[in-house]
Amino acid sequence: MANYRFEIQYEGTRYAGWQRLSGKENTIQGKIEDVLGRLTGEPVAVIGAGRTDAGVHARGQAANAHFATNLSDLDIREYMNQYLPEDIRICLVEQVSEDFHSRYQAKEKCYLYRVSLKEVPDVFSRRYVYEYAKDTQRSLEERREAAAGALDVEAMKKAAAYLLGEHDFRGFCGRKIKKKSTVRCIHSIDIRMEEGELRFYYKGNGFLFHMIRIMTGTLLEVGEGKRPAEDMKYILETKDRQNAGRTLPAKGLTLLSVDF
């Protein structure tokens, strides 16, 4: 059997996330494994570099799988794209060394969270952005002020600086973890205003369950003036999820790339 690496794109809107779980047939991993099983005639286990949550998208997910076939790399890709749903695409298939492991050998993952500040949400991006103007948990005045550029981006950048480096991010995790480590290293957080959107680019060696969505929600509260930038340090120190902001919707998050 050979080891194959995949580069994958998917729109996560109608899926229960990457990971194949019992009782949840509609997953990205499950769809890919089903097609590879059809190709090889036997079960194939696909290992993803990261387990994106339900509703999260990917432009550059990485995965690998061991299986036997006489098809070329290109033919494998064409076969998979023929039978996969149109919202999952295999961009690259290549044979790699036997010991390559997409999860354990991933050095950096880059995610993008998009916040639309437009007063009238854009029909064509509605599946890929958190629409600030439609969030009824904020007042109409707050939403209009944000659309007019009232969010303090510099305050958010100051707050984001506290998150850089290696920390225990338990306070930004969406579920209780008892055995596994919640220590991660964030390499960079880049916050930009682009095309009527506030875009948060995160790079790090890994991220916890809902971690980016919670961090972004907390940073937005800093930008709104609801909490000081120094709160980030306090959340890291206390490791208490209750001290952080709300979890933003999954649809605004996209896995852009995985570097090895």
Walk me through the structure.
- The chain has 260 residues and is α+β, with helices and mostly antiparallel strands.
- Helices cover 24% and strands 28% of the residues.
- Strands 1, 2, 3, 4, 5, 6, 7, 8, 9 and 10 form a 10-stranded mixed beta sheet that branches.
- The longest helix has 13 residues, at 28-40.
- The protein starts with a strand and ends with a strand.
- The mean pLDDT is 94.
Which terms summarize this structure?
260 residues; alpha+beta; 10-stranded mixed sheet; 6 helices; 24% helix
Concise synopsis of the structure shown:
By secondary structure, this protein is α+β, with helices and mostly antiparallel strands.
Order of helices and strands: EHEEHEEEHHEEEHHE
As a percent range, the share of helical residues equals 10-25%
> What radius of gyration results from the CA coordinates?
20 Å
User: Please, how many helices?
Assistant: 6
Beginning-to-end CA distance, first to last residue: 23 Å
**Spans of at least 5 consecutive residues with low confidence:** none
The whole-number mean of residue pLDDT values reads 94
Q: Could you give a short account of the major beta sheet? A: 10 strands, mixed
Shape: globular
Structural class: alpha+beta
Give the topology.
Blueprint: E1 2-10, H1 28-40, E2 46-48, E3 57-67, H2 73-83, E4 88-96, E5 108-116, E6 130-131, H3 140-147, H4 153-161, E7 165-168, E8 183-194, E9 197-204, H5 211-223, H6 231-238, E10 253-259
Parallel strand pairs: 3-10, 5-6
Antiparallel strand pairs: 1-3, 1-4, 2-3, 5-9, 5-10, 7-8, 8-9
